[in-house]
Amino acid sequence: MPAVLNIPPPQASKSFGSAGNSPGATIDARQVDARQAAILSIEGLALQYGMMPLTLLRESCSPEAERLVRKLGRVPYVADPWLPVTTLGPLLVMAHHNPRAGDLWGVPPFLVIRVVISQEQYQNTRKDLVNRFGQMPISQSNAMEQLQPPRFDELGLEGSYNWLVENYPYDDAEKVKLAGFYEAQKSKGEKLEMANFNVMQRNLGIALQYLVSGSKQLVLSAAEAQRQTFFPLPLLERHVVYPLYIGRHVCFMLSATGDCYKFEDEWISMGNPAIKIVAVLADTATIRDAINRAGATFDPSAVASMDSASLSVADDANVVEISPEDMARVNPQNPAHGAEELVQWALFTAIRCRASDLHLEKFYNFTRFRARMDGTMKTIMTAPESQHNRFVALIKNWAGINQSRAECQDGRLALSIGRRRVDVRLAAVPTRREFQKLIMRFLDKQDGVKRLSDFNLSQRQIDILTRTMQRDQGLVLVTGPTGSGKTTTLYALLNSVNDEGVNIQTIEDPIEYEIEGINQTQTNNHRGLDFANGLRALLRADPDIILIGESRDAETAGAAVNASLTGHLVLTTLHANDSLRAVTRLLAMGVEKYLLADSLALSQAQRLARRLCNYCKQPVQVTQEIQELFAKQQVISQPVTTPIFQARGCDECHGTGYAGRVALMELCEVNSELRDLVEEAAPMSAMRAAAFKNGFKSLYQEGLTQVIGGATSLDEIKCLSYTGL
Ligand SMILES: [Zn+2]
Hints:
This protein is 36% helix and 21% strand.
């Protein structure tokens, strides 16, 4: 037998992985199952056995599920075991076409969520697994198999969590991280609820609820749900539900509360026939993501039924209505479309692809729209040069700025797309031969405010940020190039301390997210409200914490430092390459060094690295050379034994190998030694040495840590090596 077939133990005659070699056995099994399938559909089987039916989004095992099954399981003993497909927090989701199948790879049954899939998906997924475990075999036995569950129902959520921390094979790093978040959540109240645990780790609360229910509660993540056009999105949005599986007789519905009564009521009161609904508990965030994903399709039937009543439009912005239904009919290659339609299509497409910016520029003898997606520019439309000025005029007109081509201009507009509202910040820049380039930045209010727990931070980073945000005064600098996620971090920091007892005031340009409980002020050049005098006005409002959008001049920087010396915690952003250069930058701007030394609490620098696509990232062995690099950069104390990953490319990531991004944060906490050095305006090298002594990790070191953790690739962080040791 070839090497790939070493998964099954020799005693299994129809061994897992030998399907290709023994067609007789497989056909036999298929006939039996075909007969079974004729009697019962997937949904019928699922209902009968109290499981969920599922159409897998990908017919393979997710990397996270692979990691878990290697940890919790062993080789399967039969030819047709349950197949690990995905995860839910610490739980493994396993799939089969036959609910009565036995082998769970030795994973303790209470840590498994079972779903029913089609025969065909089962075969395809099985092929993928044979391949995976052929390349890197799984262990023959696992002590976890003997693990006996406690009475989770008596332990409750918190007790079950503590039991998991004790008994579940978490990595040390994970344990430390969970403990940190546990403390943070615990400090908010007496008893932790499901939502508190979901904050600590995605879906952890849901998983605990599953354990407490004695594996009876149906649970899953909405990330596993297919796109749907059956139910109107506003209805799903109102009730925070999303269909997981729409069958012939029953709909399995993901719900944040674990029931769907109110949804059902409204559905029926809309004049629809009653449907049988089985509720599946899922967390709010993944359900909202699923709804947003569904809203971003071209499917006109889904869009047509949206109502515009829920749309709120501020009256100070110029709103451009884009109809997704019309956009579905636009073909940018067709010369019959007018300029307005084409521009709308470019905007619509950029937003649908979750671009952060859209550029309109002349290029050789045509004009092009390029969108920035996950940090990389991609051309989404080109048109003849003659169209360029027409496009520019249209967009500037929407933003209400004049048609002069000689000056740099700023403007704003808002797009209303179906039920979505996206604000756009527009910059116009003159280029050669009286042409202009337009840069549009999308400020999507729907994406919401991130939590610190969304950032994949180390315990050291969490400790520093928590400690800093609990100070009663001091200056926090956040630096990084445009588009490095500074604002996202600042909002997450503010939100981490946003409660009744704290008065938070901001002065921003623009207000990118609106956060309840925080008093946000927008600068306004026409009324002479800039950062510096805005800050003066804010100080009269008795704030505890102040955010100044940007310290771009000496006056603002000076005022920020002063405020941070008089009983306020002040957060601001600054353009600088790294956290220590931010210090020298402020000194160069004319801030007194003894004032800065007294006030500075933390300087942070940030970059976004592209996150490897989870569907296709490829493990690579860590060579001796790379081990040495890790050691030299002091990110490991002993050789790495797990593989790192490189980009490959698949349909899910449009062939790029990457999807989404991961924030790298360099945190320089100011201790007394550094304070003295700032006061002396000591050279950079001396400050750097003191910082490293204090446990400082540079952007490159943080990047390497993310490489070892499997989030990104060595290639992706190469450009930061100048910050390394
Ligand atoms: Zn991919």
